[in-house]
Write a structure and sequence with these properties.
single chain; about 80 residues; Flavocytochrome B2, Chain A, domain 1; four-stranded mixed sheet; two-stranded antiparallel ribbon; 2 helices; 6 strands; Cytochrome b5-like Heme/Steroid binding domain protein; Cyt_B5-like_heme/steroid-bd; Cyt_B5-like_heme/steroid_sf
């Protein structure tokens, strides 16, 4: 199966509200945070699902451990 790709416009549809899944992108990888309790409602520490959080996440000293185990759903292409 081919890997799913997302544009920023397509990613914007996955906001975690009204029954939509919550997806975030970090360093070109799109993650499904729908089942992560901290992302309930598509929000976490002032960040919103449906966005590229690359500029926010490098400040996190525990980036790799945070993303470990979160399902990867595709790649961000723009």
């Amino acid at each position: 199966m081919a890997e799913k790709t997302f544009t920023t416009t397509e990613l914007a549809e996955f906001d975690g509200r009204n029954g939509h899944p919550a997806y975030v992108a970090v360093k070109g990888v799109v993650y499904d945070v729908s089942n992560v309790p901290q992302w309930k409602g598509g929000k976490h520490h002032g960040n919103l699902a449906c966005r590229d959080l690359t500029s926010v996440m490098p400040r996190s000293i525990h980036l790799e451990s945070v993303l470990e185990g979160i399902p990867v759903v595709g790649k961000l292409v723009d």
